[in-house]
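anyone seen this seq b4? input:
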Amino acid sequence: MSLPAGETLALELRCRPRLHGIFVDRVRLRTSAPAQEDLWVAATGQVVPAVVFDRELLEVSLPFGARKVEEVRTEGPRSGALRLRLREGDRRRWSAEGLLVDVLPAEGEQGAGLRIQLEARHVGKHAGTLLVETGLDGDPSELALPYAFHVSGTLNVAPEPLYVNLRAPQADGALLDVRSTQPGFRITQMRVLEGPFVVSWEQVDGGHVRARVRAALDHIDADVRGATGRLLILSNDRTQPRREVALFALGKIPQPAR
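predicted toks r here
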């Protein structure tokens, strides 16, 4: 292609993006000009997704026993053509974690979406992804909404996991504090489920129990530099009546002087 002096040339650029967002690139043109054989043209653009949820992450924190309803809507050029559908297997799995999910139809200027009722049944952190079929001809066939659901309880155990120093005097062991804000809190049982450990505990006050975990040295080989185990705590705490704590023994057992 030749270009007479003083003339202009229009370039038509086409792209097939695989991801949405802002992109920056360069296009190289080869010329016959000795002083500038390569001519670089900057190309920038923004790819708008065909349809997405109006938030990138559903993040909710609730106390045990609480309930909350969240709504997420779709947006984008193809949101009006959506026919959202949930797979029954996914719904049952989410329900077991305390997420009751239903499809919301489009309403006015709001696109179709999801209604998520979160029920704080199990203490801890729950994370995953809600997947919904779009019903569109072509991409995207599914929409994904990551979620992070944290349920707080009344029981607190610290430190967790618990580390026992094998180099320290055997009488020391490691201390574990168990507290609950529930009135009338009491521990019904505390025992080692697994590993070469022994535990003893005492009631400090109404809502505070302190345990001491020691390594059972006669059950650890002298050349071993560590051991693992699990401690079981049973209590009347309604949010976590059963709690397991990971135990670690680290270091080399001191040998008696000869």
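Residues 20 and 26 are 18 Å apart (CA to CA). Residues 88-96 form the longest helix (9 residues). kinda curious what u guys think
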